[in-house]
Amino acid sequence: VTTLADVRALTSIDYLIVGGGSAGCVLACRLSERADLRIVLVESGPTFSPENEPAAIADFTVRSFYNPDFMWSGLSAHSRTSDSPAIPYAHARVLGGGSSVNGMLAQRGLPSDYDEWLTMGVTGWSWRDVLPFYRKAENDRSFPGPLHGNAGPFTLHRYKRTEFSGFERAIGDVVAGEGGAELADLNGLEEEGFAPMPLNLANGRRLSAARAYVTPGVMKRPNLMVLGHTEVRRLLIENLRVIGVELHDPSGQTTVRAKHVILCGGAIASPALLMRSGIGDSAGLSRLGVAPVIDRPGVGRNLQNHPTIMLATLLSRAGRHHEQRPPCVSAIRYSSGADGCGSADMMVSIMGSVPVPTEWSPIRTRIGALMAILHKPYSRGQVTLDEKGEPLITFNMLADQRDYERILNGWRYIRRLSASTRAAGMAHEAFVPLTLGPTTDTLRTAIVSTAASIALDSSAIMRRKMIRAIGLPISQVPEEEVALREWVGMFTSPANHPAGTCRMGNPSDSAAVVDSRCRVIGISGLSVVDASIFPTLMRAGTNLPAIMAGEKCAAEILEDGRA
Ligand SMILES: Cc1cc2nc3c(=O)[nH]c(=O)nc-3n(C[C@H](O)[C@H](O)[C@H](O)COP(=O)(O)OP(=O)(O)OC[C@H]3O[C@@H](n4cnc5c(N)ncnc54)[C@H](O)[C@@H]3O)c2cc1C
């Protein structure tokens, strides 16, 4: 266990990495491969050696999502405008970051997502440029060949169609019946259809970035220190050069010097740290009482996220999994057809079971869900600071009318799919999930949920009771156009894919925060490498892309010799 005293005793630190999340773990691993460099990784949440990984993180039913020890406490966000109510927002705070608590969906996005960045002043990130780093990261168990990697630390697994539940297969049948394709690979090219979901899963366990990259061998490297439960609150800057950081841990605060600091805090924390340190919109910072160091108005702007809307259903015996599976093992990629929104702009994530907080609850396999995800949003939000220097998040979701129309259509689509699964005998009543019930592992929870699960199969009255306890019956969702629009606006939620708040771009572009090699523009000794650097969201979750970015930037940092 590394202590703050150990770090302070170091005579020099070459690279200090702030945040041990998806990208941070990759950087810690790759930079410490060079034995002559001294690397310190600072993580504000708990850290652990791979052999002591908490069971809830390893568990592929995604229990870790509900563990407050692995999340930033008190974080909230305005889903719509800043006048909309702030709702609690989940953001990881643990070694492995999002990859330790997420749904394990491991997609790359589509080639044109990256090629588009060329038009935004970003060089070296076209599909051709990023593919080698995806291949370096991945060990894709399903596909050899030039599109996939087979020797990297990050294992990807796909379930076969024969392993899908009746509910999942019924959705595939609807897609096929409407002329849609059945795809083998969502990490291939620009194709649409029903497909197995690539998952970061190995040997029946979640494979987080921590487990994949900060292995027992990496942990033992004498030139790497991993410091947990310690937050970097501020950067120390002299003459437009970062010279170190201010650290806070439960025993107090201190400063540490480093030759180069790499921010990997994620799309919420990285811009917040820059702003607290005086890097951001000067006028805004002055109003908050922070002395500006450099005017970079792009910091915290350009916040993007995928809007989602969900419809759950109680599954029949024929519709459900009879063995444990991760919540989502298949999906549909499709085009909304909306003007100017390109192709493959939508996804339906098919959940054959749902994550629940308790370790042992048969309820999780009794519920299925369909989540429509708007994969190519045009609305933009912002991260700013509150008076205590904590992040204030406004997603501004659906502000762009194109987004509103497409999520509305996404809702109509999942409603239709859900009705088909009921007609096929795979599901009972549909409902909009609001809560998942008991949250503690007690004998009472186990007994009550087992009894309820058994009763659900035989009693429509029990099913109605259960639905009223945890959600909104589908019959209460308006169908009339005006009322439905309003309802969809209220029930659309942000995914956990914030990105874009320290975006890459040309140094002459005042909205850019880092250049195409992830160096903060106008400040030396400082890079940002995490989901905040992406100029636009890819049509995918952000985990595998953050890992790819970690691989790419680690190679460039070593090439440049930034320390
Ligand atoms: C609940 C949930 C479900 C998700 N599901 C999926 C999914 O299925 N598929 C997918 O592709 N993506 C998913 N994501 C998103 C994906 O996991 C994240 O986008 C990805 O992990 C981001 O990586 P990152 O490197 O940008 O930062 P993160 O992984 O968020 O890591 C940042 C780390 O930095 C630490 N940190 C922050 N600030 C400081 C500081 N000042 N000092 C010290 N440490 C600091 C944090 O504690 C955190 O551990 C999900 C995310 C969540 C939260």
Give a concise summary.
This protein is of the alpha/beta class and 563 residues long.
Describe the protein.
By secondary structure, the chain is of the alpha/beta class. It is 28% helix and 21% strand. The strands form seven sheets. Strands 7, 17, 18, 19, 20, 23, 24 and 25 form an eight-stranded antiparallel β-sheet that branches. Strands 10-2-1-14-26 form a five-stranded parallel β-sheet, covered by helices on one side. Helix 2 links the parallel strand 1 and strand 2. Helix 5 crosses helix 16. It is globular. The model has no long low-confidence stretch (mean pLDDT 95). The site of flavin-adenine dinucleotide has 41 residues, from helix 2, strand 11, helix 9 and helix 16.
Kindly report the average pLDDT value.
Answer: 95
Query: So how many helices?
Result: 16
Ligand species:
flavin-adenine dinucleotide
N-end to C-end Cα span: 25 Å
Oligomer: single chain
Q: State the low-pLDDT regions, or none.
A: none
Number of strands: 26
Query: What level of helicity do the residues show?
Result: 25-40%
Beta-strand content estimate: 15-25%
Coarse morphology: globular
Please compute the radius of gyration using only Cα atoms. Answer: 23 Å
What class would the helix/strand composition place it in?
alpha/beta
Q: Major sheet: size, sense and barrel closure? A: 8 strands, antiparallel
